[in-house]
């Protein structure tokens, strides 16, 4: 049995040493790596700036994103089902990803979580309904999936900055000197 002691760590290796030659000795700034065969390899300190440059250039691991077909499929599904609650599991199934990976990838692609995207779509649909129909605010709320007019009003005001009634009146009233 062969024992190697790299920096106070004892490692017992029963396999024979490989025939790979060790790299040239590095200075004290180098990094120690244990080869699967049990040999200690030292990575030169000059390799660290290369690794840092690759990471800064974005050539390393990218944040998760959806493929264009996945994003299109999910956003189209959200638009088609804006009037009902959606669950992350059904959206993840559309893109053939796990729930957690889908959530990260969707946010990486859109900048919004799936819930926020769905909420934004509901508010956009509500704006279109208020601008083009004479539906009451309660009917607009129900047709866009909100539980009641109060919930719709709170959410609309939080996202748009004004209540739905004020928003609608600003869009439908004639300009001030047009009378």
3D architecture notes:
Among the domains are: 68-116, Orthogonal Bundle (Arc Repressor Mutant, subunit A), CATH 1.10.10; 118-172, Homeodomain-like (Arc Repressor Mutant, subunit A, Orthogonal Bundle), CATH 1.10.10.60. It has 179 residues and is mostly helical. The protein is 50% helix and 8% strand. It has helices spanning 47-56, 68-80, 88-95, 99-110, 114-132, 137-143, 149-160, 164-172, and strands at 2-4, 11-13, 31-34, 40-43. Strand 1 (2-4) and strand 2 (11-13) form a beta hairpin. Helix 3 crosses helix 4 (99-110) and helix 6 (137-143) packs across helix 7 (149-160). The strands form two sheets. Strands 1-2 form a two-stranded antiparallel ribbon. Mean pLDDT is 77; it is low at 3-18 and 20-28.
Short description:
The chain is mostly helical and 179 residues long. It is 50% helix and 8% strand. A hairpin with a 5-residue loop joins β3 and β4 (40-43).
Q: Got a strand count? A: 4
Number of helices: 8
CATH overall fold name of the domain at 118-172: Arc Repressor Mutant, subunit A
Strand content: 5-15%
Give, in order, the helices and strands: EEEEHHHHHHHH
Query: Uncertain segments of ≥5 residues (pLDDT<50)?
Result: 3-18, 20-28
What is the CATH C-level name of the domain at 118-172? Mainly Alpha
Helix share of residues?
A: 40-55%
CATH superfamily of the domain at 118-172: Homeodomain-like
With strands numbered from the N-terminus, the spatial order across the biggest sheet is 1-2
Through-space gap between termini: 99 Å
Report the major sheet.
2 strands, antiparallel
CATH-level-2 architecture of the domain at 118-172: Orthogonal Bundle
Radius of gyration over C-alpha positions, nearest whole angstrom? 29 Å
In round numbers, the mean pLDDT is 77
Q: Which shape, going by the Cα principal axes? A: elongated
How does the helix and strand content classify structurally?
Answer: mainly alpha
């Amino acid at each position: 049995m062969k024992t190697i002691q790299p920096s106070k760590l004892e490692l017992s290796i029963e396999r024979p040493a490989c025939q790979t030659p060790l790299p040239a000795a590095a200075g004290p700034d180098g990094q120690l790596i244990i080869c699967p065969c049990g040999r200690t390899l030292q990575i030169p300190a000059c390799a660290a700036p290369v690794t840092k440059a690759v990471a800064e250039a974005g050539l390393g691991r990218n944040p998760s994103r959806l493929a264009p077909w996945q994003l299109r499929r999910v956003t189209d599904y959200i638009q088609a089902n804006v009037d009902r609650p959606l669950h992350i599991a059904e959206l993840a199934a559309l893109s053939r990803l796990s729930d957690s990976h889908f959530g990260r990838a969707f946010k990486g692609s859109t900048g919004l979580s799936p819930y926020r995207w769905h909420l934004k779509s509901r508010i956009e649909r509500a704006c279109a309904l208020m601008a083009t129909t004479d539906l009451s605010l309660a009917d607009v709320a129900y047709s866009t999936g909100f539980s009641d007019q109060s919930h719709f009003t709170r959410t609309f005001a939080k996202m748009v900055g004004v209540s739905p009634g004020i928003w609608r009146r600003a869009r439908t009233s004639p300009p001030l000197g047009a009378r």
